[in-house]
Amino acid sequence: MKQSIKDQQAVVKWLALSTIKGVTPREWLQLITQNALTLEQLFSGEWCAAATTSKTLPHQLATLIASADKGCIEHSLNWQSAAESHRLISIECASYPAMLKQLSSPPLVLFVQGDHHTLANPSIAIVGSRRCTHGGKQIAHDFAWQLADRGWSVVSGLATGIDAAAHNGAMLGHANTIAVTGTGPDKVYPARHRELHENILASGGAVVSEFWPGTPPRAAHFPRRNRIIAAMSAGTLVIEAAIKSGTLITANLAIDLGREVFAVPGNINNFTSEGCHYLIQQGAKLVFKVEDIIEEFSSLPVQFTLKCVDEQQKSRPENLATDELLDSVDFDVTAVDVIAERNKLSVSEVLATLIEYELRGCVAAVPGGYIKLRGKKNVRHPHVSI
Fold first, then answer.
1. pTM here?
2. I want to staple 272 with a disulfide (CB 3.0 to 4.6 A). Which of 71, 240, 281, 361 is the partner?
3. Boundaries of each DprA winged helix domain copy (predicted)?
């Protein structure tokens, strides 16, 4: 559905305020709310009284408004008109995520690709290390899949590692996924995730940015992206994170906003688990199954149907988990000769069986040996990889 002319005119005004240098979104919002102004009054000049009372913008409002970057505005409108899936959502639009307004200085305009209605879904953020383990990717994939199957959209940052695994997992579920980027809406970063970006849009998800079209990736953009991830989500799940990382920034932002924070524990000898263990020490909830997250929220909106998982209904590959040889493979890396020793078999016999398990999605070959996987993998969406 296209925006009405009135809504489009309002978006243009919010875009104009966003381009004015030296004035933050918080200051514009304070000026408007404290002086009971409408956008029309602000742009028509009916702000003279406010100009003398406002502490944040005491003088020269007319000059400020006249300094709006018309080139940026036109470029943004051209981006929106380039495709039906492109949309500019201002802070007063119904599609603007309500929880995002709790930021002290929320974006005045969001650039959205895909299904903008997805932004209204209840959502959980899944974040973690780019340099994650294979096991960490699998955990992110499975948690995202199960959360999406239960009506939760999964929000992440389109980065490599945990982010990508979460997006891919969520696309297998019912509620889909939202990627928040640190670039303009016409840029994909990292470039290798162009296919992932396209898959998110094709599957009914959305890609969101607060940056103007043409904006390249810069280091300062990603903490800003992280605050949006934390703010628009009811909770944040951390899977593998170093102590000094953007992931911990996202978790701390979520804490500051009063959101729930969850962390998956890991190997104490793995530096990517240090951040999770730190968060758990600070009060984050330790989780190892999706129900640990869902139980923290009393209910989902009625339009989302909770999907109950019958643990008794297992496929043959899942029943293989009771096999003795599979039981001897750990969730951490297990060397083939160790597996052979545990089962009193030759290495060649063990490899033949492990290949069968791998084809069925029960184990994965990694540097140094094999790791056991949890549950069925990728049986519903063969084109999605982790």
1. 0.76
2. 240
3. 313-369
